[in-house]
Specification:
The structure is a homotetramer of 338-residue chains. Chain A has eleven helices and 14 strands. Chain A is an alpha/beta fold and 338 residues long. In chain A, helix 7 links the parallel strand 11 and strand 12. In chain A, helix 3 packs parallel to helix 4 and helix 10 runs parallel beside helix 11. Chain A is elongated and about 75 Å long. Chains in contact: A-B, A-C, A-D, B-C, B-D, C-D.
Chain lengths: 338, 338, 338, 338
């Protein structure tokens, strides 16, 4: 940790801070520069309270040297984490985990139909929202537990794994019972109580990046889950909020290599929510695969026009089949298979 | 609602959409322009699914004419909402609701001390976090229910109201029991299950704007609470996340007059979290009052250097006293009192 | 154009606006809705002044139906524009235009060395800054006209084309004389006088997106050049400024397919400036190619450690050779060659 | 300057960097921490090339301790700069410099009329654009030199000072001749050649913050002007571009106290461009004054409905008179006069 004193801060203030640091078992090294004094701190800085130091008289700013997360870091775990879901090895460098299905579970017929089509195309993880977080209270909020059962049955029928979103901590037991992967949506990325509770299970977790979360905040959210005992976390970039209005969100694909450099956890990309526009999904899927993504999540609905949410970004099964054909050369170029 | 067709979209596609709209009891009016066809829709557009329409063949984009919220709108309720908390009329144009106290409840001594000082200065609402949402799992997470009791006792001793944050839906009964105002933090602004549950109580709710929420999303989050039956909602602008790095967040004070134009709910400003820097809090407090804010929330700690969180933005009681003196002329200029 | 009146705006205000529109040869169609009146306008809306209409009494907001640009639009020119630079067909779907070279021209030796290496690898466009726009006045500002000559000679020696940036309108004649492509940097994207002047030449222009420009503003900047008579414009996405701090800028690759949908102009990606970090350049180059980019601009320096600017993002020639080898499978997957 | 090495970087890499630093006359101090080595650098860091250091093998990141600007810093010049324009002392703590007038100079009548009204109200600086930077090439581009003359004559008639924008470096002589303050617009904040040239004059400069410029980039742009010899620079906050769509830009008023802390230059606020909406201008003007702004720039047009640009944000003279009356109590509260 580096503590930069204000210019003209009296020596006594730096001395006071150094006392404080020593009392915590750290070694402060003062550097008397031309314009300012800087105190470098040797020792375990993760336990230090930055705000506390910044509040001390004479301090201008405090800069961390190491990250706050440990368990999710590549340094602590050099090999990639591979999560096995019904035989699909998510995180394996040779695998592209394709997760597809409708935005929301709407009926048994819908899910059976889409599961049948997707499984035939080689998709092994079925998605579908049973509980839907909606911006306004007057929008469709999902079928709830009935939706979970419909999703599970459709997946079982076609030997697929299931991913669905949790929106209420009180539903956790049901989620653990009916699904193979629990999704935590962007709006809940910093719902820390929820993170702790899913950390107490062993069910794989699919954690979406918050709309305005930094990558370090994203990794720290994952750290909440790992530090509670659940190592099976995969991350998902789904776009951030910027000044751009041409896409629903802005998809920053550099997240993929950055996460790979800093962490051992798999990183998936969701081009449907990131762009919000059908015509951009194929090029962004190709780009995500080329950038090194471990998986892709795409919305597919038997009849998008009738969808109860996010209709404009859902593919029909035949459009999705075309996408799978079109991304094949890119998958081969990076040596990945479904 | 306005539906803009793609240029060169065949007439049959527009016809198909108009059929659809009519079947829902709406009146579509086609406008055949130079380059494109536009369909204007007359009727109750709030019930229409924009995504559904955007997914229909030939549609380029769909634009709403009216807002999705109803109960929070100024149109539905022209008079300002005034929420009475222990005799303080929050939302009354003549009142500046000052809420102050430490970031986190740390001990009985701390809370008694600060409550005593603040009540003497005329502050009538005591804040303090019993449950702390922290970015990383290794930071202080609050005293929990013990913190709630300490806070309540300190407030009762000095006849103050209490505001504290809820972070877990399962704590709601305790919050209702021990506090006068339930705070929903920025990270939970779109925790819709939590919004619904506090909507089922009658306890006043203090809803903070999410870091990257639009003002309409902010008002829609409040709509969740009102539509479940709780009309006692006050809003809080606490800064948004932008490219700026000089302040913790960017404080967009135009939120104050915009909320006043669109809604009848009180709007409070939190300059402590918005700036994250002590030296900016006084000028931003003055600016917020001048812009028309109904209240201010400021962090005050008996000994900021010892604070367990956000130390750098907390005032000492004597610094806070100075702030109260310095903002007095602005309060008089806008004809408000504590 | 769609004009939405305020709720409760008196009929006379809508009538006044309709008179105004008719007097300009347009056809207003009033739509009396449940809550508001909307006026749809049929006719050439590009000539209308939105601000003027928004200032009229009773108007709530005005929404455009068509874009303001004409010449750059795909509608006006369905075939892709192909710009021939020394035999390289930039914009041809089978071509990946690779532009490489150092951030700044520093010496004859440097440029001869890098040109020799790059031309051997198949690179046909040499970049190098003679005039450098630098954030601070105390940084290296470039060799100026001497740099231009050095760049030209090195390129001629190895039969390459030359691209370099213009920063002062008064240098235009020199730029036209010495270079094959004139680069307009992100900071000058809305230097409209400069856009007009390069529009008066026939030299191909490489227009970089401004740090916070919308895609429509970007296309309108290109429209300035085309409308002055120069059709040879290529666009360059080089990252936007967002809240993210992990990369110098955020690279929104959806720009590539969006520009392809809206315009016929070639679109190039600059991963060096977009990320600012060497280790992210290769994955982002692959992603850009997979997304459909017509070209890539990358910084290569014989000795990055000695570079006078942007050292941390420049490749050595041998690192660049490795990148070329690694992107080959992706280029083949999308059927493009250098 | 602080150089953080990668974890596990070999000692030889740190040694190589320290050699390099010593060869430049600086004193490196190595700190061997638990996880990483950090090199603190004592000496004049402004001359160091950060990119150069970041490109050296083994370096993870480099952090500056001091700012890059000197002349604009409060440290180099503790007293506030006061710029005298026709007797108005801009920057004097007791003065609120009010600059008003239409967005664009449109005719002699318009300017005479508005100058007459404004001067009667006590406004001493007349604004008006003769050269207009417009997003699209088909919009009104200003009257040019004729506009300058009209503006000058109107101001002289009513003994006012004149401020107008420069958009082309080749017009500088005319600007110096006809105006009292040269405005550099947001889009030209980093047009460094223009900054240097106005730095060669003695005419006061009004520098607007770029839409996505950091405050340090803003101050560095001013440093370009001061370092070329012109000390008469005032800064203007006019809003930044964020994800918000409810206002044209987001007005971050914390800029006012931050600039005051870091620099001695006057800081003005432009609420017209920052919000783009008439109904927000008065509250934001009050807030800006309360935050400590040295001046306000507001658009006033004799007949906004007829304005050729930005009509929706221009006040009529009588609306402006009302604003002046309404801000009076706030001006008195902060002890400022026109």
């Amino acid at each position: 940790m580096i503590i930069v004193m204000k210019s003209h801060a009296p020596q006594a203030q730096a001395a006071h801070i150094m006392e404080e640091l020593k009392s915590k078992g750290l070694e402060p090294v003062p550097l008397y520069g031309v314009e300012r004094t800087v105190i470098a701190v040797i020792g375990e800085e993760r336990d230090l309270n930055i705000g506390h130091l910044e509040a001390m008289p004479g301090v201008d700013k405090v800069m961390r040297v190491v990250q706050q997360y440990k368990l999710v870091s590549r340094e602590s775990h050099p090999e990639p984490t591979i999560i096995d879901v019904k035989g699909l090895r998510i995180g394996d460098p040779k695998v592209l985990a394709m997760m597809a299905g409708p935005c929301a579970v709407e009926s048994e017929e819908q899910m059976q139909s889409v599961a049948k089509d997707l499984s035939k195309m080689g998709v092994r993880i079925l998605r579908g929202g049973a509980y839907k977080p909606r911006t306004g209270p007057y929008s469709f909020q999902g079928l709830g537990k009935d939706g979970l059962k419909i999703l599970r049955e459709a997946a079982d029928e076609y030997k697929m794994g299931v991913i669905t979103e949790i929106v209420d901590i009180r539903d956790l037991d049901d989620l653990v019972k009916y699904t193979d992967i629990i999704q935590i949506g962007a709006r809940n990325m910093q719902n820390f109580e929820l993170l702790k509770e899913v950390g107490n299970t062993k069910t794989p977790v699919f954690l979406k990046r918050g709309l305005s979360a930094s990558i370090d905040e994203f990794l720290l959210a994952a750290e909440y889950i790992l530090s509670n005992g659940n190592p099976n976390v995969m991350l998902c970039e789904r776009g951030i909020r910027t000044f751009e209005k041409d896409t629903r969100n802005t998809l920053p694909l550099a997240t993929v290599p950055i996460v790979k450099l800093r962490s051992h956890l798999p990183i998936i990309v969701d081009p449907s929510h990131a762009t919000g526009k059908k015509e951009l999904i194929e090029p962004m899927t190709k780009a995500a695969i080329a950038a090194g993504a471990d998986g892709i999540m795409i919305e597919v609905h038997p009849n998008p026009e009738e969808a109860k949410s996010d209709a404009q970004q859902q593919f029909t099964p035949s459009e999705f089949k075309e996408l799978l054909d079109n991304i094949k050369p890119i998958m081969e170029a990076v040596n990945k298979h479904l």
